[in-house]
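User: I'm putting together a small comparison set for a docking exercise, and I want a reference complex before I start. The sequence is below, and the ligand is methionine sulfoxide. Could you produce the 3D structure with the ligand included, as structure tokens?
Assistant: Of course. I'll restate your input first, then give the structure tokens for the complex.
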Amino acid sequence: MAEDLKIFNGTKEEQYQSLLPQVRALIGGEEDLIANLANISAALKEQFNFLWVGFYLVKNEQLVLGPFQGPVACTRIDLGKGVCGSAWQEQKTLVVPDVEAFPGHIACSSLSRSEIVVPFFCEGEVAGVLDVDSKDLNQFDEVDQKYLEEIISWLN
Ligand code: SME
């Protein structure tokens, strides 16, 4: 079965509105978490061409690198460290317009200028985070937060 993504050129909101039903269809019939995280990463990368899109999963008190698209990245992040570890600790989405202004930001790529991290939950605990990086400053706003949180809610 063909799994081609339909890429939409339009406003950011329109791009998410085109993408979300396709992601829903892609992951809807699959129970395997890793398979779904891999396809979510690929779909976001393909539609928006972000610098880096991927997941870190909570394992033994650390975030450990999971499925992603983009340059190689650091493999382990402690609670409270960097944007990912902070989103985990605070249990909420963090939008970082300028990574250099975020104390403790972990620079996996020197090209990253802005970032959004969205935690996801299993039985009330953070099970991992979605991390998206951009080469541009101020890439992410409440529109990204709304749609990325919606995608992430389907993992529960
Ligand atoms: N910048 C992240 C680290 C992960 S990479 O960007 C892929 C952070 O500060 O947590």
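The first strand starts at residue 52 and ends at 59. The beta strands are 52-59, 62-69, 76-78, 94-96, 114-122, 125-134.
User: Thanks, that's exactly what I needed.
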